[in-house]
Amino acid sequence: MNSQRLMALLVAIIISAPLLLPDGQGIGLVNAILIWSIFVIGFDLVFGVAGMLSFGHAAFFGVGAYTLSLLTMRMGWEFIPSLGAAGVVGGALALVFSYFAIRVSGLFFALLTLALSQLIYIMAGTKLRMLTGGVDGIAGVPRPDLFGIDFYDDGNYYFFLLALFILALLISGLIRISPLGQALKAIKSNEVRAEQIGFNVQRLRRSVFTISGVFAGVSGGLLASLIFYVGPQMLHWTTSGDVVIMVLLGGMGTLFGPILGVAIFEFMREWLSTQTSHWYGILGLIFIICTIGMPKGIAGLITQLWDRIMPGGKS
Amino acid sequence: MSTIVIGLSMGMLLFLLAAGLTLIFGMLRVINFAHGSLYMLGAYLSFQMVNLTGSFWVGLAVAPMIAAIVGALMERIALRPVYDRDHVYQLLLTFGFILVLDEAVRIIWGLEYKQMYPPELFSGAIEMFGSSVPSYRLFIIGFGAAISAALFFMLDRSRYGMIIRAASGDPEMARTLGINVSLVRTGVFSFGAGLAALGGAAAGPLFPIELGMGFNIIIDSFIVVIIGGLGNIRGAVMAALLIGMTRALGYSYAPSWVDFLTFILLIGTLILRPEGLFSRKGRTA
Q1: Nearest C-alpha of chain B: how many angstroms from A308?
Q2: Where are the domains of chain B?
Q3: Neighbours of A257 (CB within 10 A)
């Protein structure tokens, strides 16, 4: 057993909590964790693997949520095709963004993705009010209707989300070990060298950005169905910021780390917000301390502890 | 006429923020996400000062000083330990500052909108070319112009400016020449924070003071800084006026397209001249 597996075990324990605890306690929390995890699993491909800091992923997340809501509620589509469409639209928007944003790198990339996503946010609140319901959003987003199972029961919906979560995890794991993932790591560690070796850096970046847009779109659609609501807040830049915090907290570039980050973030949101109304500020402080003190997040911490307990063992 | 005045005054406010952003970037290679929060802090602080002392001018003078102290602390405590890491971490830290500063403002001043009034001297309106213009806007234009002139003088002619230019051009060389680079960094960050708060204090009587004000202006400031060319303070002046005028003209002729206009400027710049519209080779400060 190494620290990777330890983290996988931790993740497994957290997401199976509703099965272990009596009366399915914490089911709402775990459902939210599963959905946000799908988002960060995709986001970390861009941030952790390819080394691109995007502050615009809220756009794909929110657009996915609106797509699912509009297709199911206005067009009468079934849930599953709508969810697929949410992913497609999220990915398509990410592709459009990437044509503008990938021209620049580093800090410019962060700023440009932020600006573009803010443009989408403004559009949803004003220009597209007919479609999006403006600042009020759209209430009454449905959940899937499959095999006669009542997914409006959180306990049943959990299994639906769990299946999608595992699928997302598998896809992301495969991408990480695939030639694409290896090439992206090469680009992250030295862009010029990767280009000289013969990788088409721009195209690889665009691909991974688009893939993460699909993850974000699907996750957004799922969140809308979980809380039966979609509003422009999901498109707001703070959503992009939340995802960055989750990934950094958990440990960027690791498969399981960001999921632990989500778990802690969501747990804090749930718990701290009942204790104090200033939880976001506390979160900011924790974030600052983590950024300075443990840049590799919880994943790094676990690896370190593991190496101390099992000296000599390769992790 | 009033459109031009509004545009110029907006431009001047944007310049106060963009100048700090660009100076900080030139010196620390970090984009300060929290700049908008410092601007907001400046507005709240000056509101508080006006309430305490009854004088607008005290607010305008004291708010930037307090914000400068906050800025110096931010740099000393949080940013300094991560200079040798990837720039992304510094960006993330300044993002953390936003959360903390916004929360602090919420705790101290609450959620309600605050309102400030222009000082007695500039509370009226002036007839210019057949239209009436609020004199406070004219004050902002003059004030901004004075500040930017002073800034240019300081950067180009004074010993401090020389040190800043040297330290941002080549920190290693500056250090070997006996310049305390880390002190210069703290100074520049704190100075930039002060400028942002000065902008906030000056903007207080123009807009309602609220929690979202920082974020509304930071996006525009980013756009200004990118269009002007990062680290290029001359470019920032031109770009700030350009964005200010675009906004003002947009509001009077096509209000629902204002945001699109500024974004089109931004995207156009990045596609045509990613180094900034007003950049000249070899100039950093």
Answers
A1: 25
A2: 2-109+133-272
A3: 31
Q: How confident is the model at residue B1 (pLDDT cuts 50, 70, 90)?
A: low
- Taking CB atoms and an 8 Å limit, are B92 and A285 in contact across chains? no
What CATH architecture applies to the domain A3-309? Orthogonal Bundle (1.10)
* Tokens standing for residue A148: 């006669």
Q: Do A53 and B91 touch (CB under 8 A)?
A: yes
User: With contact defined as beta carbons under 8 Å apart, do B27 and B185 qualify?
Assistant: yes
CB contact under 8 A, A284 and B103: yes
> Mapped to the 3 state alphabet, what secondary structure does chain B carry?
CHHHHHHHHHHHHHHHHHHHHHHHHHHHCCCCCCHHHHHHHHHHHHHHHHHHHCCHHHHHHHHHHHHHHHHHHHHHHHHHHHCCCCHHHHHHHHHHHHHHHHHHHHHHHCCCCECCCCCHHHCCEEEECCEEEEHHHHHHHHHHHHHHHHHHHHHHHCHHHHHHHHHHHCHHHHHHCCCCHHHHHHHHHHHHHHHHHHHHHHHCCCCCECCCHHHHHHHHHHHHHHHHCCCCHHHHHHHHHHHHHHHHHHHHHCHHHHHHHHHHHHHHHHHHCCCCCCCCCCCCC
- β-sheet bridge partners, residue B127: B132
| Selected residue of B100, B265, B279 to mutate for chain A interface (largest A Cβ count, 10 A) | B100
Q: Which residue of A has its CA nearest to B275?
A: A104
pLDDT, tens only, B14-24: 888 888 888 88
Calculate what percentage of chain A has a pLDDT beyond 70.
Answer: 93
Q: Which CATH class for the B2-109+133-272 domain?
A: mainly alpha
Nearby residues of B149 by Cβ (< 8 Å), 6 or more positions away: none
Give the 3-state secondary structure of residue A138.
strand
B254 inside 8 A of chain A by CB = no
Q: Which of A100, A107, A288 sits opposite B96 (nearest CB)?
A: A288
Q: A294 to chain B: which residues are within 8 Å by CB?
A: none
pLDDT-derived band at A60, boundaries 50, 70, 90: very high
Contact yes or no for A244 and B98 at CB 8 A: no
Instruction: List pLDDT tens digits, range A212-258.
Output: 999 999 999 888 888 888 877 888 888 888 888 888 888 887 888 88
Identify the pLDDT of residue A219.
92
Mean pLDDT of B24-38: 83
Identify whether the C-beta of residue B197 lies closer than 8 Å to the C-beta of residue B63. yes
- pTM for the full model? 0.81
The CA–CA distances, whole Å, from A159 to A15, A150, A204, B191 equal: 11, 11, 34, 55
B87 touches chain A (CB under 8 A): yes
Angle among Cα B267, B95, B276 to the nearest 5 degrees reads 25
Which of B103, B216, B221, B279 best tests the A interface by mutation, with the highest count of A CBs <10 A?
B103
Across the interface, of A103, A111, A278, the residue whose CB is closest to B31 is A111
pLDDT of residue A212: 92
C-alpha distances in Å from residue A67, one per residue of A35, A55, A82, A221 = 16, 21, 7, 7
**Residue at token pair 């949080």:** B78
pLDDT of A213 reads: 92
Rounded Cα distance, B276 and B240, in Å: 13
Three-state DSSP class for residue A278: coil
